[in-house]
Amino acid sequence: MKTFTFDNISFSYRDEGTGRPIIFLHGLGGDVNQPFSYFPQGKGVRLISLDFRGHGQTRYFGDEEKFRFHVFARDVIALMDHLDIDSVIIGGISTGAGVALHIALNYPDRVEGLILSRVAWEDRPQEEKIQEAFKEIAECVKQFGASEGKIKFQNSQLFFEFDELSPAVAESLVKQFDYPYIEETFMKLIEIPQDAPNSDREEWRKITVPTLILANKIDITHPYRYGKLLSGYIQGSIFKEIPSKSVSNKLHQDVSKELISEFLNNNF
Fold this sequence. Notes:
The chain is 43% helix and 18% strand. The chain has ten helices and eight strands. It has an eight-stranded mixed sheet with strand order 1-2-4-3-5-6-7-8, with helices on both faces.
């Protein structure tokens, strides 16, 4: 892993391949390995990602108030500056998609294309039920620590409700406990869901770069309708449905790679 320093934090990142630079970002509780597993790598692609503050090997985060989309976006821009990259195709999964959207809206000169997978926000904080789940995880970690807290959460009524609706989502919630530094960084699970990439969906109409939006069903933390809604505002955007992770995680990843590869080949 490579590192660069910004805002008194050492950020870990991956920068692999040669060709057109593409930044693809991970979701809440994830790390750089997630986007690399979803993105087609090959000739002509320079794939870059970083561990957000409080994620992966970027263990430190500063004040908990810095778990915000605009701060994460600024961190990504700092990475671009560190690498002397003027503009990129940018995208991400879930929270990463929200950060990419924020960058497209607020740093348009730095963006050539946009790839948004499993959008998890509208133009407001996440749904109360989702916030409740992440708050429950944070509270379990705070009160009982990661190991015992994980058991408490897995035996909670809230977990059973999520598991019945979407087993893959329930599994991803449980994985939050496995992050080695979760006892130090659990506030991200409260702060980030309460934020939003932007606060006015009309701003989405300003995006004019080629845009791909991927969405799946059977996923209550990444509602299919969010992707459809966003695609209706971004003129000329391409909307594609991908298989749910609850059906097959491998198929979910394989189809994502195929659609992203097709998008890049047709537009760049």
